[in-house]
Structures are given as C-alpha cells and as structure tokens.
Design brief:
With 83 residues, the chain is an all-alpha fold. The chain is 60% helix and 0% strand. The protein is globular.
Length: 83
C-alpha cells in the first residue's frame, strides 16, 4: 500500500472541498445522500492519508464536488518506483 499516494489524493480532495466552501461535515452529509456512507471522521482520515479511498467513493466525490477526476488525483509525472 502506498501511503504517500493516499495522502496526496487526500490533499487534492481537501483542496477541492475547500474551493467549494464546504466543511467536512457538509461534504460528509452530501456523500451520505448519495448512498456513500462516509462520516466526517472518515473524510478527515481520507484527507490526511490515514484511510484509503475506493474508486466508487472517488466517483461520488467527483460528482458532488463537480470537478474533473484530474483535480482529485495528484499530478504524477514520474514512473512507478520514482524513476
């Protein structure tokens, strides 16, 4: 498991949330109305890279935040292994 990637994805999610002026509580409530059971504490853990996010959850976040997937994923220009 790559914890650096989880942390980077979390930072992208946080940035998108903050750009929309949403609190973690507000975003968690919106996620739950889309049948995505993520509580505020789980969202906080995602944002700091302590919890992995699954593809389905990322899809729901993309829809709610109304951003391209590229905004929720870190910009990686290097190949796996750091080379």
């Amino acid at each position: 498991m790559n914890y650096d990637s989880d942390r980077e994805v979390g930072q992208c999610i946080r940035a998108a949330r903050e750009q929309r002026g949403l609190t973690q509580e507000q975003l968690a409530a919106r996620l739950q109305t889309h049948d995505c059971d993520i509580a505020r504490i789980a969202l906080a853990k995602i944002e700091v890279g302590q919890r992995h996010i699954c593809v389905w959850e990322l899809r729901v976040l993309q829809k709610i935040l109304n951003v391209p997937y590229e905004n929720l994923l870190p910009d990686k220009t290097e190949t796996p292994g750091g080379k």
